[in-house]
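Sequence in, structure out.
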Amino acid sequence: MDISVVIPQLNESESIPELTAWIERVMAENNFSYEIWFIDDGSTDNSWEVIQSLHAKNPAVKGIRFRRNYGKSAALNEGFAATSGNVVITMDADLQDSPDEIPELYRRITEEGYDLISGWKKKRYDPITKTLPTKLFNWATRKMSGIELHDFNCGLKAYKGEVTRSIEVYGEMHRYIPVIAKWAGFRKIGEQVVQHRARKYGYTKFGWNRFINGFLDLLSIFFVGRFGKKPMHFFGLIGTLMFFIGFASSAYLGLDKLWSLSQGIPAIKVTDNPWFYIALATMIIGTQLFLAGFLGELIGRSAADRNTYLVSEKLD
């Protein structure tokens, strides 16, 4: 199969038929074999009924329905696992992403050999309350990841099928899929300017809580990418250094006291010196960090490879 399209959606029943018809037209014009996966992330409207009716008319339209809202990352993760296309395209269900971009995205993956192409909505129709945080996210992510993309969070992306079947998207990490892909060894990541269309139906799901969570997720993905498989290299190193600093400080205080006594110089008790307690606390914290790294290694080796989500229905 040429293309798998993965579309997470939440209460987008009005736009789904129009989006599906648009994708079907693009696929027919370019003679692509395809499948469309709608991931219903716990919608409370009649989105699932709409997806079922579309599936009855065209079996290439498929769907996964969550029992509750898990978030976009969970939807993408389950969608990726279900795909079978050589190229996987993701887009939002709100008609702000144009399916007309699909042929060029497909060409760049198959002919230019990119692992991932991220869309760049150079001209946006969002309010400044959304565009300003997005610019800050993108700047911080570029600096921390070393990936020169202008729009990490654009929903319109194209992947080699190998990429989507090799990575795991969890929590709120959908914003940083290019970073996850890079850490997984897929380094040929490109960018394409894409059309951003004004929202036609519904309302935006963006909130200020995502602004805060986004930076926390960036720190998390940076840490997990570097130390997720080797937590002892982080916690063990810092813990060992802190323990020896504390031990050396305690030893210095003790030796200093002994030297003072041998010279007949009055000296306060070691336990009356506040530096003794600082050194003792440093040793304790260092030991705890070392144990945290050790436990992290044990947990990492025994943890399940994938998260599981409660799927109530699936159309394939």
